[in-house]
Every structure is written in C-alpha cells, then in structure tokens.
Amino acid sequence: MRIISSCKKSVLYLAVLAASSSVHAASTQSTSSAIVLESILIKADSTDETPINNELLQERVIFDMKNVFRLKPEITLGGGSRNAQRVYLNGVEGSNLNITIDGARNGRNLHQHRGGFGGLNPDLLKQVDIHSTSGVTSGPGALGGSIHMTSVDAQDLLQRSGKVDGIGARIKTGYSSVDNGKHGNISLYGMASDQLGLLAHISADNRGDYETGSGRSVIGSAGQDRDYLFKLSLLDAGNHSVRAAVSRNHNEGLYARGSHGSDMGYLPELQTGPSSRVRQETEQDRMTLEYHWNPANNAADFRANLYRTENTLRYPGSAIEDIRTEEIGLSINNTSHFNFTSLDTALTLGMDWFEETAYTNALNMGNTLVWPDLTGQAVEYKSENLGIYMESITDFGPLTTTVGLRLDHYDSDYGPIQLKGSKVSPALRFDYALTNEFNLFAGYSEAARGSGIIPVGFLGRLNQTTTAANNQLKAETSKQHEIGIRYVSENWPLTLHLKAFDTRLDNNIQTIGQGSAPLGTAGIFNSDRLDIEGWQFNAEWTAGFYSTNFALNIIDVNYNQFPSGGIRRMTAPTGDSLVWDNRWQLSEQWLVGYTLELVADLEDVPAGEPERDGYHIHSLRTQWKPNPDLEFGLAIDNLFNKRYANHTSLYSAVTGIVDEPGRDIRLSLTYTF
C-alpha cells in the first residue's frame, strides 16, 4: 500500500488533528446529562457496529440514498446524476454485493446501470447493515460484501412520535437548492390491535438539473421519484412476529442513453446520436414476507423470508420494448444456543434460494447502426442459485471462534452457453480479548456466484454464434482477509477500531464492448483478477452533549496487477478518504452538526487517464424542534461551493468526468400528529 504522497500525508495529519481534538474534548466534557434517543444502527461487521441516532435522516435533511452513507468512507455513491450513480463498498461495485431491502435482493442491472442501487425513500429506513466481508450468512452473490436495508414499521413511527398505540400521521416537505428540488411525503400509521401495526407511505421528489461548484448545469440530471409502501407488522404475538409489505419505487427523467455521456460525463448542449437524451423510466416493485419465531428456549431462533420483485426499464415513445427482470426468493435459518462440553455455542443452519428471469429483445440486425436497436425477437434468460450453509460461534473464554461453510449451486443461462455447477465456500473468524478493553480479530472468507455482471439489455446481443473466451466460462469467486484490533474504554466514552483488509475477485463474467455488434466468438469472458487492499481506522467519542466520529479509509485497487480506473459494474478506485463528523445536542429542542469529508489525490491511474485532484467538502446542519410534533431541518452541503468529481465517476476522453453537485442548501419541515 502506497500512502506516501503529499495528499495522503495531509489525510494522516488531519487524522492526528482530529484525534487530538477528541482527547481535548475529554478534558472539557460538559456536565450536562446526555439526551438518550432511540438508535438506528448503520453498522459494519460485529467488531465495528456504529450506532447512529435514529434522527440521522431528518437532521441531515436527506432526500436521496446517496447521502445516507456520507459518514461511512468505505462506501462511495458517485457518478453525478440519479440515473448514473453507482455504489461501491471498499472499491467493489454494487453488482458484486448482495444488496437487499427487507430481505429482497436488488437484482441485476437492466441496462448499463439502470435498475441498480437506489430504489428506496431514505425516510423509510429503519436500519442498514453493512458487511465488508462476505461470510456464509451474507446471502448469494456477496463477492465483495453485503448491504442489508430494513424499512420502518408502524410501531417504530408511533414510538418515535411518543405514542404507544392509536393512530398517527407524519407530513414532511422539503427543498434542495442545488437542483431546485421539491420533496414531500406523508405517512399514515396505527395499531389495529395490541400487536398489529399498519403503515401506508407515499413520497414525491421532483428535481431539476443540478449545478456543479463551477456553476455548470449538468444536462440530463433532472428527474422524478415516487415511492409507495404499505406494510403490516404483527410483532410479539406470543413468540411470533410477521411482517408483510408491498412497495414501489418509480423514477423517470430525460436521461442520456448510450455511448459517451450516458454514465460518465457531460452531454453537449445539442445532443445527437447515441449520446442524446431520451425519456427513461425505471420501476422497482417488491412484495416481502418475513416470519420470526423466538420461543422461550435456546433451541430455536427461526427466521424465514419470502419475496417477489420486478424491475422494469421503459423508454416511453420508443420502439424498444421494456427491459425487465422478475425474481422470487426464499431464505430460512435457525440459530440454536447450547453448551457443549462447557463451551457456549451458537449454531446457525440455513438456506437461501432465488430464481431470476430476465426479459429483453434481441438486436434487430436489419438496423445495426442504431445502438442498441433492441426491437428484434423477445428473449429471456434465467439465473438460479441455491445456497445451504452452517455457522458455529463458540466461546472459549477470551477466544471466540466463528466457523462457517456454504455450498452454492448455480445455474445461469447465457443463450447458447449454460453455466452450471457447485462451489463450497468456507469462512473463519477469530476474536481474542487481550483485556477487557482490547480485542484482536482476524477473518477469512470465500464466496462464489454464477450470474455475472452483464446487464439485461446487453443479453439481447447474444446469438447462436456466441462463444466464451477460450471456450470456457468459470464461476465468479472471491477471497477476503482482514485483521485488526478494537479498543472500547471502560473509563472513557471512547471506541477505537483499526483493521487491514484485502479482497480478491476472480472471473467476473462480462461481455466485450462492441457497440451495436452481436456477441460472437469470445463474446463472453471471465475478467482478470481484481485486487483491493487497504486499512481503516475509526474513532468514536461522546462527552455529554457532544459526540464525534472520525473515520479513515485508505485503499489501493489493482486490476490484472495494474492500477485500475473505473470498470463498469466491477470496480473503481474510490480514493483515500477521511470523514470527521461532529454533533452538538445543545438542548432537547436544538442540535447542530459539522462534517468534513477529505479525499486525497488519485495518482495511480491507468495509462491514458488523467490523475484526479483530491477535494475537501465542508457541511453544516441544524435541527430545531419547538415542540414534539414540529421539526425544522437545515443542511448545507459543500458549504464553500467546491468544484469536485468523485473518483469513481467514469472517465471519457470525449466528455471528461462529471462533477458532483455544488453548494446545496436543503430545508425540511416535518409535522407529526
């Protein structure tokens, strides 16, 4: 790992400065009593759970998923406009993560990246679990880790508003200056019985083209989002709990499509050809059912999740038919706690299964000049995965061991090519308590997948002449290592966490970029090896009304042993980054906050691509509650209107690199009754 550049030294210098500020806070901590609020957990692995106040989304005045992860430097959501955003976890693109909402997988990309991450209103989030290593319980396709999101229940909203029963409603409206955005939602919730809660939610967001720090308007970034959720939650009915939900996210806009500009740069004022803007709509529909049985004994803690999803991409007014996927899935697991030869053990047995069917149209070979002219014969492709796993966690006093084994059986359809097989993936973890305050840990895990990262729209280029490179197609695999130390003070409200990690991905299933040409000989191939290594440091401190969180993430990304640029649906160098967040709860009614984001220069770039400048972003926020039912929020992101581009944004020699939004003043007003 190379961390000797001047900008990286600046990152380390600020790390020391922030740490010293935290120590100073210890000596001057207020005697005011801490205000205890219910917590949302946006958490990483078991040694790095970070509780974040459940008012996180409201106090930061968040209107999109991009800002949910601002405090986690290991997660980057870059790319500019809503339709171009991609999520990366430690440099691994979201197509190689297992991303779920209420247990339902997000599914594959529909075209380029459309239909990928992002189909949820942040106000509906209850909890986000982030696992940067795979592990046998992370679910199918978790080559680089997983992100599991859970939506709120009616009971959560009642509790948040200070009620325990009856009915309630929440109305929220907001405005964002950088894109002249108008935002609003309404939630109705209540208890139909002592245990049964009902929730109905609808939200609307209208955004114009946003402006960068240089004042330039990003053409094609305007759009609309509509979110709908109806959820039933029967909780603590004896030993049983049931949650059932139906939801829809609808996004539309006049977005760029194809070639330069679709996901990497600015469109010219007058667009022609494949870089022109066309009306696009994406729709994500989910039906989820969760059952939890936890009787008053150690033998059973049983969970089952059943879901059906449908993702659709439409081009209204175009001859191109809808591109869509339908998926059904099921997961079942049970954890038993027992004492074996005086050793406390938790044993989890489980399975997960999904079947995804992708629908698109083949290329119309009578018109190969228009890319891609998907007006030919309707085609469909199936991908299926069955996973069976076991995990044992055993306590040997100061040493806790986690041993897991997972078997994945995959069956994926690539037209004339079928990829079918099985792979066993182990996972090991060791946690050793040096003292009551210091804990050492180390872990290793593997994962496998057969579904690839080819967007559904690209599957229309398959034909009977398509062959795999070297006449073979292998399953995708990953290997991950981590080692670190965690300190939790018994005398001070201080937590420190340091770890080093590396991730290796092999054999990502991709296609050759040939524009409108069909995929013929060697049209599908296994990618070269991707290596990501790095380290993370995190410090948390709470002193009365003041709390601070400092997080540093330094990584190197290499593809085929050379520095990597952005590789669609696979990886991007996210850059060495630091996030320092501060929060002052001045009273029960008023809080203020400040966040610094610092990203170092990106100097290790592929040949032919420019080095990328680092940047530092300052953000402020405040929240005022004149009474329990009324809440005002103000947030200013990119306070000094810095012009910058996220390092994960794709580079084009024609259009350059798209800049991120400039100064954004966001306002919100929430009324609960």
Automatic annotation (TrEMBL):
It is found in: Cell outer membrane. Its main location: membrane. A motif (TonB C-terminal box) lies at residues 656-673. The keyword Nuclease does not apply. Residues 1-25 form the signal peptide. One of its GO terms (cellular component) is cell outer membrane. Transmembrane segments: none annotated. Residues 247-639 form the TonB-dependent receptor-like beta-barrel domain. One of its GO terms (molecular function) is siderophore uptake transmembrane transporter activity. It is a multi-pass membrane protein. The keyword Calcium does not apply. Pfam families: Plug (PF07715), TonB_dep_Rec_b-barrel (PF00593). GO terms for biological process: siderophore transmembrane transport. Residues 52-145 form the TonB-dependent receptor plug domain. Keywords: Cell outer membrane, Membrane, Receptor, Signal, TonB box, Transmembrane, Transmembrane beta strand, Transport. Belongs to the TonB-dependent receptor family. This is TonB-dependent receptor.
